UniProtKB/TrEMBL annotation:
It comes from Brevibacterium celere. This is TetR family transcriptional regulator. Residues 24-84 form the HTH tetR-type domain. Residues 1-21 are annotated as: Disordered. It comes from the Bacteria. GO terms for molecular function: DNA-binding transcription factor activity; transcription cis-regulatory region binding. InterPro entries: BetI_C (IPR039538), Homeodomain-like_sf (IPR009057), HTH-type_TetR-like_transc_reg (IPR050109), HTH_TetR (IPR001647), Tet_transcr_reg_TetR-rel_C_sf (IPR036271).
Length: 216
């Protein structure tokens, strides 16, 4: 039988655990609301008060969790990016040929697949030119995407699906991501010229030139 002191300590520990869990959930809600606000109105006019209003909170509570608007924005982009990366990692870990997985990861990365509008990423990249914390967030996300692509390229080479080539898988992953980013920007700004279907065709042609054995 527990003594009163031990029982009180046990209840106190559970209360602290619940408090930490509630705080983590609240942070996630605030991050999701921040991404929604950025998508709706853009970063230039983003206010902590607008994020708070989406959740019926006071702006001071948002600042309590994130200290500054800059920290809130950086964590919101990290939150959105990690959501997309989690899906890409699940695809990459599935038991299928590397080419199938690579195609699906790329389809997910492009505007037709990602859970978030590409408007927020273009907006964020622009802001990141003048915000070192935000730029660091994007650099970390970029490294993760390149690592996923490079691992699939290596797996495809090992399985004989892709040509061995002279360039490293990392170099090809870097070129691929740069190409996809450029396509996504064009498709976002000029959808009448670069449709999602056309974007998909061009992405596939690029991959074939990079990865498949020459037919000549």
């Amino acid at each position: 039988m527990q003594s009163a002191g031990v029982e009180a300590a046990s209840h106190g520990g559970r209360a602290k655990g619940m408090s930490r869990k509630q705080a983590a959930l609240r942070r996630e809600e605030i991050l999701a609301a921040t991404v929604e606000e950025i998508e709706a109105s853009g970063l230039r006019t983003l206010r902590v008060a607008d994020v708070a209003a989406r959740l019926g909170l006071s702006p001071s509570l948002v600042i309590y969790h994130f200290a500054t608007k800059e920290a809130l924005v950086a964590e919101a982009f990290a939150h959105a990016g990690e959501s997309d990366l989690s899906r890409a990692r699940r695809i990459a870990a599935s038991s299928r040929p590397a080419r199938e997985k690579l195609d699906e990861v790329i389809a997910w990365y492009m505007p037709a697949g990602s859970t978030r509008s590409w408007k927020i990423w273009i907006d964020g990249w622009s802001a990141g030119l003048f915000d070192t914390e935000l730029r660091s967030t994007f650099a970390a996300l970029d490294r993760e995407w390149k690592a996923i692509l490079a691992s699939l390229i290596e797996a495809g080479r090992d399985a004989g699906e892709f040509a061995a080539g002279t360039d490293s898988a990392q170099a090809i992953a870097t070129r691929t991501l740069a190409y996809l980013d450029g396509l996504a920007i064009q498709a976002t700004f000029h959808p009448e010229e670069v449709s999602r279907a056309l974007m998909g065709e061009w992405a596939q042609s690029f991959l074939e030139r990079e990865l498949l054995p020459s037919r000549t």
